[in-house]
Amino acid sequence: MPEAETLFISDLHLSPEQPQVVDAFIDFILDRAPDAEALYILGDLFDAWLGDDNDTAPYPMIRDTLAALSQQGTALFIQHGNRDFLLGETFCKQCGAGLIGEEHMIDLYGHRTLLMHGDTLCTDDIAYQQARQQLRNPAFIADFLAKSLDERKVITAEYRKMSGEATSLLAGDIMDVNQKAVIDVMQKHGVNRLIHGHTHRQAIHHFEIDAEDAERIVLGEWHADQGMLLSATPGGLSEERL
Fold first, then answer.
1. Would you give the DSSP letter of residue 181?
2. Please, what are the domains in the chain?
3. Alpha-carbon 163 to chain mean position
4. 211: three-class secondary structure by DSSP
5. Among 91, 97, 133, 225, which is disulfide-ready with 76 (CB 3.0 to 4.6 Å)?
6. Contacts 24+ apart (CB under 8 A), 20-27
């Protein structure tokens, strides 16, 4: 019998403008993911998400491929990222996925593990944290989603143009996490392992919390020529490039 396995990915930034990344993701879902008992997508599956009613290509194909994966028996979990925080229960229901919170605890083969997207750990980026608070306001979200899809597209394009977000989220420009914020959230949940994405700084960091060994695993972003996943089995963790 094959060894149990859980997969973690993040920061794919799927969009119509990046068809090669979409194709790589579809191949991964069809060929690699069915071997796992669970798949966790830790934020920024999409480069921008304007609402669950957006049926612009390639979103329906992505949704249907994820639905087929969950129907085959792989448990699917999705976490909000900073780019797709408007992803809702409707999309997740259509995919057969569970929408998990921004600080999500799991028992990973006997090891308590905290899962996050990671943007809330970048506390040194004060401007971003302030903008995040405004964008996540329920009143703002309700007002935005009440507009037509065409209106939402125009507003999003204007916002990115004004804020420079289209270029500010390149790998070298995203601020890294604040170590105190990391330790604080890990102590809050009583864990010594954290898995997250967002910063695009793929690495495994070892440190101590209260004189005990701890680790922070950062998932890598996907490109047209390469994807990255983290595989967890009862025997341990391993990084895999696609």
1. H
2. 6-241 (3.60.21.10)
3. 22
4. coil
5. 97
6. 20/224, 20/225, 21/222, 21/223, 21/224, 21/227, 22/58, 22/61, 22/62, 24/222, 24/224, 24/227, 24/242, 25/62, 25/222, 25/227, 26/61, 26/62, 26/65, 27/242
Assign 169 a pLDDT band (cuts: 50, 70, 90).
Answer: very low
Residue 1 in this model has a pLDDT that exceeds 80: no
Whether 97 contacts 63, CB under 8 Å: no
Omega within 30 of 0 (cis) for the link into 34: no
pLDDT category of residue 168 using cuts at 50, 70 and 90: very low
Here the tokens at position 80 are: 């909000």
Determine the Cα–Cα distance for residues 176 and 161; give it in Å rounded to an integer. Answer: 23
Dihedral sign for Cα 109, 111, 114, 115, please.
negative
Reported as a single tens digit per residue, the pLDDT across 180-215 is 999 999 999 999 999 999 999 999 999 999 999 999
**Higher pLDDT residue, 20 or 163?**
20
DSSP 8-state assignment for residue 155: H
Contact criterion met (CB below 8 Å) for 59 and 28: no
* Among the listed residues 235, 222, 234, the one whose alpha carbon sits nearest the alpha carbon of residue 24: 222
Cβ proximity of 230 and 242 under 8 Å = no
Nearest to 169 by CA among 17, 11, 10, 15: 11
Phi, psi of 37 (to 5 degrees): -80, -20
Q: What local confidence, expressed as pLDDT, does residue 176 receive?
A: 93
